[in-house]
Amino acid sequence: MLLGFAGAIAIEGTFQYTKSQSFCTSCHVMSGVEHEWTESVHGRNAKGIEVGCADCHVPPGRVAEARAKLHAIHAELIPWLGGVRRPEQIEERRLVLAERVWEHLRETDSAACRSCHRKSPEALALQETRARAEHLDAAKAGQTCIECHDDGIAHSKLEKPEPGGGDEWKDEDFDL
Description:
The chain has helices spanning 2-17, 21-24, 31-39, 53-57, 62-77, 87-107, 111-114, 121-125, 129-140. The protein is mostly helical and 176 residues long.
């Protein structure tokens, strides 16, 4: 019984520690990403609220959190198996990595955003006229946060290729 209790405390402590900013940025590969975050509106803002990596990248709920932790364990092992080991490699794969996060946020109706940002008449009333109108239009269209706020919120703005801008696959790219 005592061993089970100690195990539960150890598991909970591990869950909490692995959501900490110091844990998330402890590897040298994340140093550039951490600098971006500290300069962003989520890293510092007028209200003094600091949003950390886990607030956006670890979804609410124990099952979703456990799934994210398993994914993170896999991501941590990848560098040792030939994946991202240097900050330059993050830069090379940045758009692909961001698109994965954006897709996850679309699939979850931006649950990570909504865990802090409330959709309520009171919250809308505090917004500037343009922002209030855009949020109302997005809600009517069934859009989620990431549809508009997909870049430059916590990380540097990415240059996205224009549709039809030459990045599409061509038949000659495949051995048919």
